[in-house]
Design goal:
Blueprint (H helix, E strand, L loop, with lengths): L22 E9 L2 E9 L6 E2 L2 H5 L1 H11 L1
């Protein structure tokens, strides 16, 4: 699967746990035995990953539906 890009512009998100600025990074997502590598904003200190609502309710929900139909 091709990589998804979260945003085209700068984002000023900070980790609520570490107070560290989030930065783009590759993240592995697992669902129903399938693994996908995507670039998302993540905390370089604790590994927290931010998944924006539009991605979760859009593309990710679409992929979940496809995998569940298999």
């Amino acid at each position: 699967m091709s990589q998804m890009k979260m945003t085209d512009g700068p984002v000023d998100w900070e980790c609520a746990h570490c107070d560290t600025p989030l930065s783009p990074g590759k993240v592995s997502l697992d669902y129903m035995g399938s693994r996908f590598t995507v670039e998302l904003m993540r905390c370089p200190t604790c590994g927290f990953v931010y998944i924006p609502e539009d991605l979760a309710m859009g593309k990710m929900a679409e992929v979940e539906g496809i995998l569940e139909d298999k």
